[in-house]
Design goal:
mainly alpha, 4 helices, 69% helix, elongated
Length: 144
Amino acid sequence: MTVDPYAPPQAELSGGPGRTSLPVPLTVRALLLCGVGANLITVAHTARGTQVLLGQHVPWVYVAFDVCVMVVLLGLSYGLWRGSRTCAVLALSIYVLINSLAYVVNRALPGWMPLSVLLLSLLGVAGAFRWQDLRAGRHRAIGA
């Protein structure tokens, strides 16, 4: 059998230029897990709020908005678990926006729970940025 001289060249499909197949370090995976946990806590809290809204017979637009927020946050959680900086920053922005709106409506300062979830979200953003730096080869040393 002869080689076809007109066949297109075969390329590696394992990552492309600038991408490595590094295993995710445990510290980075823990940071990403913090961000995913913050998103899941927010989804659970929004689901509980939606259940309360359904009991108060509010317009369906509010319920639909809450369901859309939950679906978007679940999708962003998956992206964050994969190490996406964009998903991490968007999830943090949505969380801050939701809590800012809650503050405007309720005129009450947040307690320890929203602040702890905010801290977890910030850790998730740090993990996503750290993972992208490791993948691009911009790390100082292992464990640094």
